[in-house]
Amino acid sequence: MTDIRNESTPEGTAPSGGASQRQIKVALFILTIVYAFNFIDRQILVIMQEAIKVDLGLSDTQLGILSGFSFAIFYVTAGLPIARYADRANRRNIVATALAVWSSMTAISGLVQNYWQLVLARIGVGIGEAGGSPPSHSMISDMYPPEKRATALAIYSSGLYLGVLLGYLIGGYFSDVYGWRMTFFLVGIPGVLLAIVVRFAIKEPIRGQFDEGVALKERPSFLQTLKFLMTLKSFPYFAFGCAMSAFVSYGVGNFMPSFMIRYHGFSPTEVGFILSATNGLAGMIGTFLGGWAADRLSKYDVRWYMWFPAITGGLAIPVGVFAYNTDNSTLMIALAFFQLVLSATYLAPAIAMSHRLSGPVMRAMASAVLFFILNLIGLGLGPVVVGALSDIIREITGNESLREALTITVMIALVKVFLFYKAGKNLNADLEAGQK
C-alpha cells in the first residue's frame, strides 16, 4: 500500500525554489508578525469586553460566547476546506487574502450597534483567520528540515503571544483614550497593509523539499487525511491534549481583564500593560522554550516532544491555583506569569510532530485538523464554560464567583497532563510504522 504522506510538489503549483537563508528568515519573521496580527485582532475584544459589556448590557455568558464559541465554530469549520486547498495551491496567496479579510472585519466591528451585529462581525474575523495558520505551518515545515522544525514553529507560534502582548497593550490604552469602537478601526486597518507585504515579500517554498518521497498521481482526500490521522496511536492523544491546554488558557485568559478589574481594582490601561507582560511575554517565552527544549531533548528520546509539555503543564496547576486565590496583586501577577510560561510549552512540539507524522502532502490539513480540535474545545468551550460557571456560582457565593470559576478551570489541566503522557507512550509506534 502506498503511503499517502509522501508526495512531491502537487500539480498546478509553481513554488519558488532556491530561497537563501536570509529570505527564509525574512519569510519566517513576516509570517510571525502575521500570526501576531491574528491574535491582536482576536484578543482586542477581550481587553475591551468590560466596556462593551456595560455599553451593550451583556452577561458573562454572552461575553464567553462572543469571545469564544461564536468565533471558534466558524474559525475551525472554515479552516478545513482552506487547509485542503492550501495542500495543493499557493499558500502565500492564501495567507495574504486571509489577513486582508480578518483585518477588514475587525475594523467593521467598530460600526456595530448591538450584540448580534458584533457576533456577526466576530464570525467574519473567525472565517478570515481560518486561512492564516495551516498554510503558514505548511510553508515553514517546507523551509526547515525535521530537526529544526519545532524551533522554527516555536518562533512562529510565539507570534500568538506577541499578538496577545500588543493586543492588551494597544487595546487597553486605545480603549481608554479613543473608546472601543475607534480601537477596532485603529487595529484592523494596518493588517490590510501587511497583507500586501505578504503577497510581494514572501516566496512560496518547494513543497516537501526536506522529505523523502515519490510523486503520486492522486492526492489524499480530506476523509483519507482525517482517517489517517485518527488511526495514528499518538495523534488523538496529543490533539486532545492541545485542546485541553487551550481550554484552560482561553478560559482563564479571556476573563483575566475582568478578574483584574473586579478583584484587584486595575484600570483598563493598567490591565493592558500588566497582561502584555504576563500573557504576552510569558507566552512567547513558554512557546519558544517548548519548541527549543523538545528539539534538543528529542536527540535522546523522541517522546520528549510529548512528555516535556506534560511535565510543565502539571507544574503550572498549583502555580495557577495560588495566583487566582491571593489578594496580593503583585504576587498574583508574578504567579500568573510563571503559570503561562509553563502552560505554553505544548504548541510547537505538537505542530512539529503532527507534520512529521503526516508528511508534506498533508501538512496544512494536519494543522487544520489539529487546530479544529484545539479551537473547538479550547477556544469554543473554554470562555463559555468559565463565563457560565461564574454566572452559576454567583447565585451561591456572590462576587467571588469569577475567582472560583478560574480556579476550577486551572485544575482541569490535569487532563492535559495525562493526554500528553499517553501520546508520548504511543509515539514510537507511529514513527516506526511510518518508516516501513
From TrEMBL:
<feature type="transmembrane region" description="Helical">
    <location>
        <begin position="65"/>
        <end position="83"/>
    </location>
</feature>
<protein>
    <submittedName>
        <fullName>MFS transporter</fullName>
    </submittedName>
</protein>
<dbReference type="Pfam" id="PF07690">
    <property type="entry name" value="MFS_1"/>
</dbReference>
<dbReference type="InterPro" id="IPR011701">
    <property type="entry name" value="MFS"/>
</dbReference>
<keyword id="KW-1133">Transmembrane helix</keyword>
<feature type="transmembrane region" description="Helical">
    <location>
        <begin position="364"/>
        <end position="385"/>
    </location>
</feature>
<feature type="transmembrane region" description="Helical">
    <location>
        <begin position="330"/>
        <end position="352"/>
    </location>
</feature>
<feature type="transmembrane region" description="Helical">
    <location>
        <begin position="405"/>
        <end position="421"/>
    </location>
</feature>
<dbReference type="InterPro" id="IPR036259">
    <property type="entry name" value="MFS_trans_sf"/>
</dbReference>
<keyword id="KW-0472">Membrane</keyword>
<keyword id="KW-0813">Transport</keyword>
<dbReference type="GO" id="GO:0022857">
    <property type="term" value="F:transmembrane transporter activity"/>
</dbReference>
<feature type="transmembrane region" description="Helical">
    <location>
        <begin position="153"/>
        <end position="174"/>
    </location>
</feature>
<feature type="domain" description="Major facilitator superfamily (MFS) profile">
    <location>
        <begin position="27"/>
        <end position="425"/>
    </location>
</feature>
<feature type="transmembrane region" description="Helical">
    <location>
        <begin position="304"/>
        <end position="324"/>
    </location>
</feature>
<feature type="transmembrane region" description="Helical">
    <location>
        <begin position="273"/>
        <end position="292"/>
    </location>
</feature>
<dbReference type="InterPro" id="IPR044770">
    <property type="entry name" value="MFS_spinster-like"/>
</dbReference>
<keyword id="KW-0812">Transmembrane</keyword>
<dbReference type="GO" id="GO:0016020">
    <property type="term" value="C:membrane"/>
</dbReference>
<feature type="transmembrane region" description="Helical">
    <location>
        <begin position="235"/>
        <end position="253"/>
    </location>
</feature>
<feature type="transmembrane region" description="Helical">
    <location>
        <begin position="26"/>
        <end position="45"/>
    </location>
</feature>
<dbReference type="InterPro" id="IPR020846">
    <property type="entry name" value="MFS_dom"/>
</dbReference>
<feature type="transmembrane region" description="Helical">
    <location>
        <begin position="180"/>
        <end position="202"/>
    </location>
</feature>
